[in-house]
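Table S2 (continued). Query chain:
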Amino acid sequence: MDEALNRPVASLRLNPKFGAVNVLLALGWRNLWRNPRRTWLTASGIAFSVWMLVFSWSMNNGTFGAMIDTAARQFLGHVQIQHPEYLDDPAFDHLINDVSGLVEDASNLPEVEGVAVRAQSTALLSAGERSFGGLVIGVDPQQEAVWSTMPSRIVEGRYLQGAGDLVLGVRLARNLGVGIGDEVVMLGTALKGGVAAAALAVVGILETGQAEMDRTLAQMTLDDFRAGWQLGADQAHALVLLLHRNKDTAAVAGRPWADGVIARPWTELMPEMVQMVELKRSGQGLFFVLIAVIVVFSVINTFMMIIFERTRELGMLRALGMRGGQLQTHLHIEAFWLCILGTSLGLALTGILLALLSVNGLPLPESTRELMMIYQMPERLYPEYSWGATWVAVVSMLIGTQLAVLLPAWRVRRMLPVEALRKED
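Corresponding output:
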């Protein structure tokens, strides 16, 4: 027998109530260290697979959460209260009434960080001989300043402060050929089919990084919008809610609201974001499957080598009356310990890295600033630990290593004691 069999079981503690199980577990652990280099290499493969899934999934959770939060703070919010038909048919007369009551109800919710009232319509914007279509939005500057990132997107001038102010997207301002202090005339359709008109002075130019928004966006105060488009003092098109945590979106959207309105979560407001997240998840899952398959073949190779090196020992055990199923159990126990060792290493490494990044974050290079604006990403990424990925990684590795033992075990069950004992070292 190998000298490793005479070594103590190190720090392995076993329950004395289960004598036979204790022996099998102890032998499995001891046999694992007959070839420490091979054990560490195989365990490192398992650790890498676990680290890859849990770490990348946690980083993606943080990244997607930051992207959703940035997009919500910039324009759409986590939840919007609208007319039931407004999302599919954004007609101007699909309004919500009693806005002040809805604002009070939403502001009293503990999950809500901020509330903003908005009204919007398409209009023709003109300056001199130039005219372009745009999306005109009436906002409350004080509400937007509390949580919206729009004021921070100003690249020239200032944000809205009072009556007569107008802020334009950078491309729209360039197309109109206007700058700070220039007057822009807007014509549209009012509530009852009348003509909506407003003439405002440009006080700020903003850049969101979103080409469509920079090309069409025009913001004015909500009071100016209501006056120009003939809305009532308590009417608007949307009540935008920003939440403290993105995970509370479904609870807030699903609570009962007033009759004649509907609360839509960001998943309905930003379907392209949902598709991007799902696509990223699918690609990540496929990559993990490929890594897991490589790890499984590594485990198969490890146990094939174990059988090759211990053929005479296994033959002797068969000659002494041990059945093939019992030998297979030994191999499964060794695979179990190997999986425990590898997953423990992987989770420990993941925990250390995520703990460091959760404090300092992962800074993005300055060269990617334009890309960060396009994809609504912050300057630093912070991970959000994924317990689901942890369970998937551990369970999949446990199942994979046990399945990997089946081929070597099949060879052990077919092993003839006489031929095995004749094998030379």
